[in-house]
Recover the amino acids of this structure.
């Protein structure tokens, strides 16, 4: 079985289109999405439609839940809050209905999926060894997948200590031990590589490979400006941070 794992699309249609074209070339058996389909970006409805059509499993992220009004914007910084208010206003009924069906955790095919972490599936960023170890200790699946930080990561335990780190484009790991993987973000990468990120998990060959694909960043940025979204959110897409 070959699975494409995507996460943190953040209403960036051009990034999502580029990733799905790359996914199609790999002839995968399933697409799993780890949440935050909306928030920050200019095309939430189109991204919800595409993710609903294309994904076999989809989680809810913190931005999805804020856009639905199920969580408040008080935990967001000013720009994220402004984008969440805008998203809430433009969200179409069918997109809202789709997001309301989602949960922040999932267990497809013996893997454990969380939008953020096992300790806090909605909010906790796995960006420290302590947070990574807590999630590996709270789970038993050979493969644990998270999103939320927008940083592509491949982490494992060696003699009880967290090993691994940031997974650059083209990184391939052998699935011969337990792994905690974050594909990186489709629509708003924060690991210094502005290209859209996704992860190919090949269970038969026991390999996971970290992919990046270029997309028309300037088109997303001009749509963000036209929508009146905060300019800093558009500017960060160039830097991948
Ligand atoms: Zn996110």
């Amino acid at each position: 079985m070959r699975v494409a794992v995507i996460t943190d699309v953040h209403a960036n249609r051009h990034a999502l289109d580029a990733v799905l074209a790359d996914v199609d070339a790999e002839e995968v058996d399933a697409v799993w999405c780890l949440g935050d389909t909306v928030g920050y970006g200019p095309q939430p409805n189109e991204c919800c439609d595409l993710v609903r059509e294309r994904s076999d499993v989809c989680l809810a992220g913190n931005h999805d839940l804020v856009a639905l009004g199920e969580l408040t914007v008080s935990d967001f910084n000013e720009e994220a809050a402004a984008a969440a208010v805008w998203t809430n206003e433009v969200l179409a009924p069918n997109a809202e209905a789709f997001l309301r069906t989602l949960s922040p955790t999932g267990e497809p095919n013996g893997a454990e999926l969380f939008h953020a972490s096992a300790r806090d599936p909605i909010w906790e960023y796995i960006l420290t060894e302590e947070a990574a170890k807590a999630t590996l200790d709270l789970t038993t699946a050979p493969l644990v997948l998270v999103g939320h930080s927008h940083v592509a990561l491949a982490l494992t335990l060696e003699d009880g200590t967290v090993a691994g780190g940031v997974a650059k484009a083209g990184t391939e790991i052998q699935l011969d031990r337990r792994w905690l993987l974050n594909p990186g973000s489709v629509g708003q990468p924060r690991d210094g590589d502005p290209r859209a990120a996704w992860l190919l998990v090949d269970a038969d060959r026991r390999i996971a490979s970290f992919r990046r694909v270029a997309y028309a960043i300037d088109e997303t940025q001009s749509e963000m400006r036209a929508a009146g979204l905060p300019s800093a959110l558009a500017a960060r897409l160039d830097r991948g941070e």
User: Anything to note?
Assistant: The domain at 2-239 is CATH 3.60.21.10 (Purple Acid Phosphatase; chain A, domain 2). The pocket of zinc ion is lined by residues 8, 10, 36, 61, 63, 148, 150 (CB under 6 Å).
